[in-house]
User: Fold this.
Amino acid sequence: MNFKKYLFMGAALMALSFFAACSDDENEPQTPPKDPEGEQPGESTSLADQWNNTNTVVWPADTVVNLTDHYVVPEGKTLVIKEGAQIIASSKGVGANHAAIEFTVNGNLYCEGTAEKPVLFSVSEEERTEENIFAGLWGGIVASETCGEMLIDHTIIEYTGGQVVEGSPAATNGVYTAGDDAYPQITTNNINGKYVIINSVLRNGWSDGIYMMGGEGIIANNLFAANGYDGAEAVNVKAGCKVDVAGNVMFSPNTNGLKLSSSGQGGNRGQALIQAYNNTIINAGWRRDGEKGGCVYVEKNALANVFNNLMVNCKFRAMTPSFDIPNNPEEGYDNKSVIDYNFYASGNQQSDIIYDGEDESGVAYAWQGYNYDHEDYNTGVVDVHSVIAKEKDLKDPQFVNFDINAVALTGYVYDSAWDFHLKAGSPALNGAAGASESFATPLFGTTGLTINGENYTSPAVQSHYGAYGE
Assistant:
């Protein structure tokens, strides 16, 4: 792990006594079993009552919490979720219109999972099926304008994307629009907030993996898989954000792995600043119609340096719409951005969905899309030093265990046996930008972000393409 993590000894937290066991009580943590001496270690406490007379609530290791209603971490208060805890949302929703259950963070949230025992946000085990990958069974985590800090470490978030409807907290609070939006897995909306999302898995959701509308952030060393049904991205950044996105694997986002925009800039929401490097993006864009999608999209005055990324079997190269009108917040990206030194690899297979006709590209192969005459390719500026596959030179990156010619371009079911490290001799091991380049400095590589008293720094820039070397 490429993070400096300094030990912090804080005040003791008040831990509630509840553990994994069966319970019929709705929206309550599980009732603790009796200990060997026959004494109860503590009474079950309802979720609504946990916040009485305390500013900090701890959900202990291996706890199972069943949510049958929306859950709120109150403003000014802190929820700590320990390793192995499971938060299981009911797919039945809330109320007469079955509003998808939302996990709202108005205070602070610290998910402290481990590699051996990740924290899990999901639905019931029998609902975790391939058929439900894009079913949008619950709402996801919404960090509001008052959320000060959030740590998501070694955490799995899945089966999100429920539709925002009348009565959804996000609609009532003005975060999303009822009838128009679906819940991402994580939303941030405080321009003064601090968010560290690391070592986690965000998969199987109707909408975006992360929709960042504000705050300083580190998004690193995560796996994104099957994000977006008929649109959406793995990471979607708007105005009011300053974020490093590094070391992530993004498999089969519907549209892009990275959508980097300063949309919404004005007032107190300043220009979006992004460093996106050493990410591996695979199979992006093929499930999206039109000429959108394909790996990276930078627009609306975002200042984004996008480099040392490995794009494999994506539909298009990095796109920068209206690049001929730089520095116009309503149009092009900030022309001080560097979107270059990336590696575009292609397999030899044809997509089983080819959008052809008016306003469609007809692109059927990744190499074809990389060399397509796209109006949003800023030729000679963006990717001028990048490695780009062609029909007779597909640039196989030689993964340890992923056959770029065998997995369908429209496939979205992730195989945990895949290994995206590079074999010795891989062409993606050499030629990437060095850390000494003026554009290649992480925003939080030195000062880091302090969350719950611990300092987290962004991964160092690696001189290979993609998330992993050998």
